[in-house]
């Protein structure tokens, strides 16, 4: 367990808020967004459903007085992996988004990458191990 810095706590909570907003929009609006972005409706909806669980976990983590360092590291690594996977998706040929879809995927990849970086910096600024 670590004593999280205020910087880390804010980066984690901001991630939870933006992930929660994305979760609602993608889950409930997949049918409307799919034709606008030329992305598969199922991909958008399933991403939204995943983000519901992710936002809940990260929101819970952000409210802890102490945080499991390994869990924070998993969140950072997961955000970095999400960023790389989003970019890879655009080059894979598995989907054929229009320009708006490409911009949306790229923008969220940049945002998630920024969260990974902020959380990593916050983790480095956090206090040492806490013994109970």
TrEMBL record:
TM ranges: 12-37, 43-63, 70-91
Q: Identify the keywords attached in UniProt to this record, alphabetized.
A: Membrane, Transmembrane, Transmembrane helix
What is the official name of this protein in its record? Integral membrane protein
Species name for this entry?
Answer: Bradyrhizobium sediminis
